[in-house]
Batch of 4 targets.
Target 1
Amino acid sequence: MLDYDGQPMLDYAPCRYGASKVDFRGPAREFEPPYIACLGGTEFYGKYLRQPIPDLLEAQLGEACLNLGRTNAGLDMFAVDPEVMRLASQASVAVVQITSAHNISNRFYSVHPRRNDRFIAPTELLRAVFPEVDFTTIHFTRHALQELRRVSPSRFRVVVDELKSVWTIRMLEILSRIDAQVVLFWMGDHSPDDDEPSSVRDPLFVDRTMLEVLRPHVAQVVECIVSVEAQPPELDDMICKIDEHDIARFMFGPTAHAEAVAALLTPVRQALQGARAQSSPKYA
């Protein structure tokens, strides 16, 4: 598919499920259990890629995979959407990608309920901590945090600590609502042991301590630290217009996604076996 300038385009076939107001990557699928639900952000959505991770996982496992990924998604998108929680709970296995901690509403600012990278407004607390910042020019969470860090690294740490705390609490809430085997999935070019990664890629502000809090509540924790060879992405294998190349360079390409699927295969198979071994009527 080409746009009016003859540049390549992908048809993401956006679709919605049930009463959800979120557009996921399509085409829409009608699933009856058992299936695997894949909840996540840009990597699961597969922006600029012919086949997102859920499609690759389905092809390797021979099990239906429902793509509930959304570009720049944060936890708020899942937490406020009962339909997503229902679809995740009806699955045999829910693969939940670790998304960044900055795309969530907190004591300092609010984000859009579905487009979680959109900075809606600062709270009075944030205005009090950063009185010199003009928030009227800020529209995205990453821009907001870059500005706060520039103005005062020490005061910025207070905001980061809040984001880490809220992220952990909200993730525990989401996990408590998913009645399925959960595989928690970290994908990044840095380890969760790097508390202050130099990378600009997600997941931002999520560290090992936070993951260990979640570990008892999930079946598996999978880490895919993308190899140096898979960075930067192969733009020739990504479908995007020339004026979007600067955006695509900060995303993972097909080689990185292949590494992700390789990391997920065995843990997801094990989670499927665990789901089938349960005595719940759902798997009878």
Target 2
Amino acid sequence: MINRFVIGFLKSRTFALLLSNLLVVLFLIGCEEVKNIPSQLPNPVRDFMEKDKYIIGLRWYEYGNYDIAFKYWKPLAEEGDCDAEFSLGLLYFEGRAVGKSYETALGWWLKSASQGQPDALLGLGVTFSHEEIPYSPFNCRDGCGVGKKLIEAYKWSSLASEMGYGIEKRQAHRLLEKIRDQLSAEEITEGDKIVEEWKPNPSLCVPRSGL
């Protein structure tokens, strides 16, 4: 009798409804737990599938986890990854996860810019011109620890305007115009010659675009 009753119940619509409700509850509990995951990972599914360590570091940076971003970027920068060199320099420039050091930031940006990384080129243009890019971390109105060198700023800003893309390219053009207004015709000619003779070292990197 008990076995027949149990079998009958398992086949009944009541059991199916109870099972369905239980599954819904378990799903909602699971969703609630997912909401609590950001402190562990920005996006677990995407980041476990992502193979580019630079991009994983970038996501951590975007979520304010600068220590973890630093751990992802530093080895890549030391291997010569142009994007990681720029981003590691940015951490030093902003003083995030590391002590603020314009000197160290400049060192990494020079390594990155020597390969033609657009953000690093723009950062150097801002640094040596003592200018700023609105709504961005680039602000060197206070000098950023280096002397004002307008021809050097002209060089890097010109290269940024050529190699940049999207909003960075427009920002570089605007910065270049500000610098150009402060230079004589002879200085502009000198700057143009430097830009024309510039070659990437060790080689031209292919920065990740659309990030």
Target 3
Amino acid sequence: MKLNTDKMIAETENGIGWMTFNNPQRRNALSLEMQEAIPVILGSFAQDDEVRVVVMRGAGGQAFVSGADISEFEARRSSPEAIEEYNRIGAEAGSAYRALGKPLIAMVQGYCMGGGLLTALRADLRIASEDSQFGVPAVRLGLGYGYDGVKALVDLVGVAYTREILLTGDRFSAQDAWRMGLVNRVVPASELESTVRGLARTIAENAPLTIRAIRVAIEEAAKDAAQQDLARVERLVADCFASEDYIEGRRAFLEKRRPRFVGR
């Protein structure tokens, strides 16, 4: 795929799509050009049937994403018009995450701050190294922190921890993040990549239609009852039972072998 920046890297390997934030000199601070590349990368992964799961990570070992690139704010967020354009590009990146339609894992090492934490919250699973740090320093920068970011935190960790994270602007350790429910696992830094690769391989080998139905059911379960589309969930479940993969799964179980799912 063609990207207009070298600060984002996209690779595919054995059913796994890797999206790397590649700005290590600035601890992978998220620049506007990086945000513009996200829809291109995720759109390509979404359309590639060979990609079963996506992993996002930061280059350099010091940070996942340390936040938005504040050095751009004077030029990019200093007028109502500039802020509107900045927000539009960010919204397109957010839409790309929602449209991915495949499991997304955040491999977090080092700083995961501000916009970096919001990025990690878009993942289905977050695996962190023991040396990771988390936080949202908006109150220390005078930034307005939008509803979507607040809602994502509340949905994941609850009101009390959201207040602690946002009102203090403090940094929290990986163990604190695990206690709050921000991350699924904390592992030594030396084991982070192997743990994430193993988890991604496990997911990639599972039935894609079943995974799709499960992810949609989880999304609907998190909504208010009046907003739920349970008919869509039922259709996706029915698709599983009508699929070649369901036949393959039964045969593999009876033959005591690993199933080979094709996503149809």
Target 4
Amino acid sequence: MDSGLLSETFVDLADTMVADFDVIDFLHLLTDRSVALLSASAAGVVLADPRGQLRVAAASSEAAGLIELFQIQNDQGPCLDCFRSGQPVTASDLTGPAPRWPRFAAAAAEAGFRTVQALPMRLRTQIVGALNLFGSGPGPLEPEDLRIGQALADVATIGLLQERNVRRSEALAEQLQGALNSRVVIEQAKGKLAERLGIGMGQSFGMLRDYARNSNQRLTDVARNFVDSASADFPPPARGPHAS
């Protein structure tokens, strides 16, 4: 494991007090670094909306995002059990006989995933969501990876709650709802750019994210500007309070 990257990740996840804090980019950082640091093929994050319903907030790949959505739509899977219980849930072989979540297991196996480790995003009794790690091979995470994965989830949760406390004018529920609404705009921009350039959804998201970072804009603003633009060119013309 890259100890330098691990240290950098904990610092990045703890630093949520910047003026232009972007929840969506923060959660994608969590999923991307989880894959880079742990024995996982993909990762996803689900968060509870103000009504307590889980929604997909971030995923390291399209396949992981679709499997997360499948769990929620079918009300079945390890991430739901993890969120409801507040405890880690392990699915060590989804292709084995008599799976605990039959529909989910079949869909995950078809997507190339054989294992799932769901980790609660919690602070004491407050649970805001779950970090889910998907593996392409059989067997659970190693104990060290499991501890680090839970630590990443815990630090991310503290970061989200800390950001709320610093900006007391915004409730956590409103912040998370805004993040989930932003994801809809980002998904629209990904699809539009992928269709326009004839590229994959993952590549189109990478282009949007890189442009947002390089131009010092919020990812949501870049996505919204591109969706609203009638131009066939990318990047879209910058505008709004965060435009450079």
